[in-house]
Design a protein that fits this description.
Length: 570
């Protein structure tokens, strides 16, 4: 009896798994789930812990053993999706950015979205011109440390915060000036609300970039926003397509297709190549979910989408949540006392160092930052009304999209500050979470290849997997090929066509062989099975057997005897 109880208890322990979810403020929530627990169960536990009701905007992200990012599907088993050894580690993130974050019903929801956009700003995913960057950073400063106090905030206090991947002393002074003179008296909730209102107007708001290459082999980032599909190349947006113009999303292997129907019945197919088939499938599923969430009126309109055709093995996927309009209607019905919010502004953070962390660690040495001035997103081109296949310059800031070096350093100092690189490269900042972009490795490699140094924080994050000199040399070529577009999409298309034809021939030959085997069994075997007996007794089969099959069999037998006799004579 005791042994049975012990074995039963051990089996129950084996069916339980420990899960750790890293939250937006970098705190961690740990729980235990059963082996067959669905993703919805874990997500509900997490939302209950956060006291969150407007939860449809959020999701849980994880990385599989092949370093591919995924969103946890709520209708499937958590254990089967992760495919890794416990304990499991995941991240709680904004999955669908609100079209108007300031219109969210509850303050707790706005605070969580604020934390996400703050991370986007720090990691280089949210780009903006210098004046907007200074204002956003000042809002963060006001929300975290309150009003300016000369006794607590000495000269250069804003430099102890890291708001962006890198920035200049001039920008730090501008941030401190706005914080001192314009934001006094604002509560943390008010500062966060103003931050959201400003961030929502930026053209890279809501961008979760997927690295790809276009048909010419040029590097690009694809993203889905509340307003449509976006393609970024260099530091310019080359495509913006509204959701009502997207007719179909499809992928085959590493190739991603976007079907667009514009005015005057103009149809366009955009083609991009992901690094791996798994990355392409993840991109496709993200597109299906975003299109359903932002475009549809009701969740009952959601349909299962297939990405298969005659030659390629496809996938089927269905978005299982509510759509944006339903979420807004449900939020309007929330009636409860506002939950208490425990802000973590002064808590040490892995991704956003606070004022208690000592001097800011910049990825560009201060002596170099004075000399390096890169033209940043001084106003992305306005492509709100239609999609364009070629870059369109802004009429007011057309020159800011061109990578160039100013002949006069003084003029450059007056106009720009170092916030982002020439090329839109959100991977240039370290993501110290389990959902780190795989392009972090590319960033580290590129800096070692080019002889640049990494910051102390970056070295700490990557020391466990720091590539050796041989690895850098071996992977350097891959990095250059990815960045410079050495791939040959035309050859890939030809190879895929040949592979498709071969697959079709193999399937056809297999079907013919199965039919021939079935015919031989029907005509030559003595198997007395009801199914075979019914077929043999039909007039059509008897006619086929005596008029066609028997003469054909005699002809083959005659030919075989002739060949055998010829071989014997020789």
């Amino acid at each position: 009896m005791l042994s049975r109880l012990m074995s039963g208890s051990s089996r129950s322990l084996e069916r339980e798994y420990s899960c750790t979810v890293r939250l937006l403020d970098d705190s961690e929530y740990t729980c235990t789930i059963q082996r067959d627990a669905k993703g919805q169960y874990l997500f509900d536990l997490l939302c209950h812990h956060l006291n969150l009701l407007e939860k449809d905007y959020f999701g849980i992200r994880f990385v599989d053993p092949d370093k591919q990012r995924h969103w946890l599907e709520f209708t499937k088993s958590v254990v089967k999706q992760l495919r890794s050894q416990p304990p499991f580690t995941m991240c709680f993130r904004v999955k669908f950015y609100p079209a108007d974050p300031a219109a969210l019903k509850e303050e707790i929801t706005r605070y969580l979205v604020f934390l996400q956009i703050k991370r986007d700003l720090y990691h280089g995913r949210l780009l903006c011109k210098t004046s907007d960057a200074a204002l956003l950073a000042a809002y963060i400063l006001q929300a975290e440390i309150g009003d300016y106090d000369p006794g607590k905030h000495p000269e250069g206090y804003s430099s102890k915060f890291q708001f962006f991947p890198k920035h200049s002393e001039k920008l730090e002074r501008k941030i401190a000036e706005i914080h001192r003179t314009e934001l006094s008296g604002q509560t943390p909730a008010t500062s966060e609300l103003n931050f959201l209102r400003k961030a929502q107007t930026l053209e890279t708001y809501g961008v979760d970039p997927h690295p790809c290459k276009d048909v010419s082999g040029n590097a690009a980032f694809l993203a889905f926003t509340p307003f449509g599909f976006v393609v970024l190349q260099g530091n310019k947006r080359v495509h913006f397509i509204k959701w009502n113009e997207v007719t179909k999303l499809k992928f085959e292997g590493k190739t991603f297709y976007l079907y667009v129907s514009q005015k005057e019945e103009k149809k366009i197919i955009l083609t991009y190549f992901a690094p791996t088939p798994e990355a392409c499938k993840h991109l496709w599923k993200c597109g299906i979910e975003n299109q359903a969430f932002y475009k549809l009126e009701k969740s009952s309109q959601v349909r299962t989408v297939s990405s298969s055709n005659l030659f390629f093995k496809g996938s089927r996927f269905r978005y299982s949540g509510r759509v944006a309009k339903e979420v807004m209607e449900s939020s309007a019905k929330i009636k409860r006392e506002p939950p208490e919010i425990h802000r973590a502004g002064m808590v040490p953070s892995r991704s956003c160092p606070s004022i208690t962390h000592g001097p800011r660690l910049s990825s560009v040495p201060r002596t170099r930052r004075r000399a390096v001035h890169i033209s940043i997103m001084e106003g992305l081109e306005s492509l709100r009304d239609s999609a364009h296949s070629t870059p369109v310059r802004s009429s007011s800031h057309g020159d800011t999209f061109l990578p160039h070096v100013r002949s006069s350093r003084a003029d450059s100092n007056e106009r720009v500050a170092v916030i982002a690189d020439e090329a839109y490269s959100p991977a240039d900042s370290v993501l110290p979470t389990p959902v780190a972009e795989h392009s972090l490795e590319l960033m580290l490699l590129s800096r070692q290849i080019n002889g640049a140094t990494c910051s102390i924080e970056e070295e700490k994050e990557s020391e466990a997997s720091t590539p050796t000199a041989a690895d850098v040399e071996a992977l350097g070529g891959e990095l250059r090929a990815l960045c410079q577009g050495h791939g040959r999409p035309e050859e890939e298309q030809v190879n895929k066509f040949v592979l498709s034809v071969l697959r079709l021939l193999l399937v056809t030959m297999g079907l013919l062989f199965v039919l021939l085997l079935l015919l031989i069994i029907l005509t030559e075997s003595d198997l007395d099975i009801a199914f075979f007996r019914d077929i043999r007794q039909t007039p059509e089969f008897e006619q086929f057997h005596y008029q066609y099959f028997c003469p054909l069999r005699r002809w083959f037998a005659c030919k075989i005897r002739s060949v055998v006799s010829l071989l014997i004579d020789t």
